[in-house]
Amino acid sequence: MFCLSLSLSLSWSLILRTALVIPNEAARLLVNIATKRGCGARRNLTVTTSCLSPNHIIAIEQQARVNYVRSLGTNILRDDSSNSNSDVPKYNPGMSAPYSPADSRYDNTSGWFRRTGRSGLKLPAISIGCWHNFGDPGTDAARHTDEASMHTNAQAILFTSFDLGITHFDLANNYGPRPGAAETRVGRILKEDFNGYRDELIISSKAGYYMWPGPYGEWGSRKYLLSSLDQSLKRLQLDYVDIFYSHRFDPETPLEETMGALDSAVRSGKALYTGISSYNAEQTRRAIGVCEANGFVKPVIHQPSYSILNRWIEPDLLNATEDLGVGVIAFCPLSQGLLTNKYLNGVPEDSRAKQESGFLKEEAVTPALVEKLKKLNAIAEARGQSLAQMSLSWVLRTSSMTSALIGASRPSQVVENVKAAEKLEFSAAELAAIDAAIA
Predict the structure, then answer these.
(1) How does residue 382 score in pLDDT terms, banded at 50, 70 and 90?
(2) Are 90 and 21 in contact (CB under 8 A)?
């Protein structure tokens, strides 16, 4: 980075700070525009701005900051091994420019958007999950301990995602950590940066797990689900979510009540579609049957965990969703990061397995598992893919899978993972080799 010192009058200093830390491309932008207008640019990049109007200064600052956030996904964070907080700009988020999406975001349309079951809803092949990395400072894998860098990284992940055609951001009431923190952060980004693009986005939330004390703070009662939805909408600063899920099956609450609450969410205008998550095949068939018998809006999507290492949905649940016309979006398709190059040589310090709040525990990464991952990585390399790309391609290999839901701790991971949709074909030999690798 270059530190750009600007010679400003007192009034202009109210518009632009006298020293900005911006990346090389943004610095060149300022120098180029100043030079075109006859301003001197010395070798130390101190630019005299006496010939630039205040409007020029504002426009240059805004474009520089937008370029910087975008560059996090393509330039600065290209090396996946880098997790330094120095990758993140140190500036007042209140001075950020309005986000302007890439004009090319819908160029990759061939097979990218996939129909959700038999509904009219289409989702991108890759969707962004906000389970991790959008909570309170210091809770993400990259350890952004201050609010400014934490928020800027979250912005960069969502900006990069949307620029690449990812229109679906998935949340739940308890995502953080702290529960609710992810919805609060994403809500701020939606309001401040995606204003004007709401109709291009699919925002989902869920309720089912513990959220507040007492008998009404979890599971599947009407009281809990609808109260939670109201709270989620406040945190997200939205009038409605596109998809509202029952996050888990409640064995003690009648399905008529749970499905009736989802129906009420749609009929009240607070959700457009409903979904279920982690229901088994029998529970899924019962849920749809209850909706049909009572005239409720039927769930259009199911969100189960699914990956090369976790195949519990085969074959019963996939058969059920296919029969019922329900779409499937897989969460944890990379098995909490195991199906990436991160764990090929053990457990790195910046991994989820090292986080106290993570679901993946360090002791789970055994030598036997690492050997399996190395075998899978060899198959991926032979296909010309990274292990993460092959793992996502494997999940998306059939038309019954609507989308794969990825988490990302930095924008470069999004850039890498969207490429998985370019190579979904597997030979019989490759599929057999993958099965043998994990046997």
Answers:
(1) very high
(2) yes
Residue 100 amino acid letter: S
Q: Average pLDDT, whole number, for the chain? A: 83
Structure tokens at 117: 């079951």
More confident residue, 141 or 65: 141
- Which is nearest to 80 in space by CA: 422, 411, 378? 411
Round to whole Å and give the CA distance between 282 and 351. 36
pLDDT tens, 235-251? 999 999 999 999 999 99
pTM of the model: 0.79
Q: Is the dihedral of CA 67, 70, 75, 79 positive or negative?
A: positive
Q: Determine which helix (DSSP H) or strand (DSSP E) holds 205, and give its type and residue range.
A: strand 202-207
Single-letter amino acid, residue 314: E
The DSSP output letter for 353 is G
What does the pLDDT read at residue 123? 98
| Closest to 296 (Cα-Cα) out of 324, 274, 270, 280 | 274
Q: Give the pair of three-digit tokens for residue 354.
A: 């090292």
CA distance 318 to 326: 9
What distance in Å separates the CA atoms of residue 307 and residue 329, rounded to the nearest whole number? 11
Neighbours of 353 (CB within 10 A): 22
C-beta neighbour count of 350 within 10 angstroms: 17
* Residue 54 neighbours by CB under 8 Å, 6+ apart: 12, 15
Cα separation, 388 vs 420, in Å, equals 8
For residues 317 and 282, what is the distance between their CA atoms, to the nearest angstrom? Answer: 8
pLDDT in tens, 293-330: 999 999 999 999 999 999 999 989 999 999 999 999 99
Pairing relation of β-strands 301-303 and 403-406? unpaired
Take residue 178 and report the two structure tokens written for it.
Answer: 């702290």
Phi, psi of 168 (to 5 degrees): -115, 120
The angle formed by the CA atoms of residues 333, 335 and 340, to the nearest 5 degrees, is 90
User: Nearest Cα to 220, choosing from 178, 262, 180?
Assistant: 262
User: How far apart (Å, rounded) are the C-alpha atoms in residues 25 and 31?
Assistant: 10
In this predicted structure, what is the pLDDT of residue 110?
Answer: 82
Higher pLDDT, 88 or 129: 129
Report the candidate in 383, 421, 407, 425 with the shortest Cα–Cα distance to residue 114. 421
Look up tokens 């097979």; give the residue. 111
Higher pLDDT, 74 or 384: 384
Q: Sign of torsion, CA 76 391 178 95? A: positive
